[in-house]
Amino acid sequence: MREFGYQRAHDVAGAVALLAADPDARFLGGGTNLVDLMKTGVERPARLVDVRELPLDRVERTADGGLRIGATVTNSDLAADPEVRSGYPALTQAVLAGASGQLRNMATVGGNLLQRTRCGYFADVTKPCNKRSPGSGCPAVGGEHHNHAVLGASGHCVAVHPSDMGVALTAFDAVVSYETPDGPGEVPLTDFYLPVGDTPHRETALPPGALITHVSLPPAGVAARSRYRKVRERASYAFAIGSVAAALRIEDGLVREARLAFGGVASRPWRAHAAEAVLTGARAGGETFAAAADAELAAATPLPDNGYKVPLMRDLVVSVLTELAEGEAR
Amino acid sequence: MAPATSSTSSAITLNINGEKHQLTIDHRTTLLDALRERLDLTGTKKGCDQGQCGACTVLVDSRRVVSCLNLAVAAEGREITTIEGMAEGDELHPVQQAFLDLDGYQCGYCTPGQICSAVAVIEEHAAGWPSAVTDDVGPEAGPPPLTPDEIRERMSGNLCRCGAYVSIVQAVSRAAGAYEATRDERRTAAAKEAAA
Predict the structure, then answer these.
(1) The domain containing residue B16 runs over which residues?
(2) Which N-terminal residues, if any, form the signal peptide (chain B) (predicted)?
């Protein structure tokens, strides 16, 4: 590991200033991803600015009935928060479906959104990788890719974004707030991750030196009846091979409002707008749910060894929406 | 005299099991390596060293974490509890006793991490935290019964290569029952201590 300086920031402006002073510096949150990547040499910061003591560790109800989540709230505290559990249960379920109890106690909301892909080629500095080393190539396209993306990928990179939390946040129209040396800004989570194209090393819309300060959830009555379900290769403590965050509001047998997002199948938490368009106004039921899944998955571009994800996601969407609809009918 | 430091090392104080330890440390040092290599607290084990096995689990400010992904310098100012700090004198922690009584291990390498994790699991459950296998995560639902499924899910961050999982689940279950049974006692004692 490269030697590095370490400083603890105590306020947001100080943290941003410390980072701006050194182009080779990184913010340190829980460290569950960054420290791991430093050990393998994927990340080689010259300085760490520890942001865990910033006063951003609260989940607050906003005046309009939404939630404002501080960037240093841990995954554990977010999942256990009563407002999240009652108003956005799929978010609690998504967070609890990720990592282990130990890692959730360390990991932070801001860090979760900025975590890097777990693609094996990205993690191995002896291999080419367009995300880690732009222009070097993507061995996953013709190599080991059974866990890789079927949506939103390009020939330059087929890595998936590993977050579970981000999938639920995407379904519920979260907005990311940040601070920079030039002042604050915000960006909807659906625009936060950049299209892969031929620049997979450029991952987010954050300006250089920006510190995520909050993630806000607008009020969403539909989210109170929501569900996150994740498929993985073992029962617990593994990344998704596919996941769904969903919410439905049904009146008189018709879908009045639908929220749907996919995890584990794309370069980013994938908001399923095409599926939502099919669902909205249609009769709630298996045929509608399958048609919605098909509408979203029509854009899928599977590789030789990850095509199984397309029917898997179709079944997962139908199953989760059916469960929500049956719960609604009870 | 303060020890010499450079921009890539710091003189820090770590609070471990109620004792303060002063050391000058390269920033690259993980909490795990500081415990084992600098402070001779070798009860905490190094397994994968990448956050995947749980052998290095310790408590930081009463919460379980993997010490291999914590930097020692970032742990300054926090209360660290390792397996060496679990017993009270000669009296084992109820979780330690349950692991012994029910053979919750085979080779024993993962056991300190299992025990630290289990201590926290019981606290997390008592605080009402749901898990990924909890049906209703709503706050009104209250803590779910600590079934074997709940224990397996909550302990899934601790791997055991010997496969002693069956008795580990039994040990956690028994210790959780003992914790539940003595909760009022402990609350009274804590209240007395606070009043004193």
Answers:
(1) 9-85
(2) none
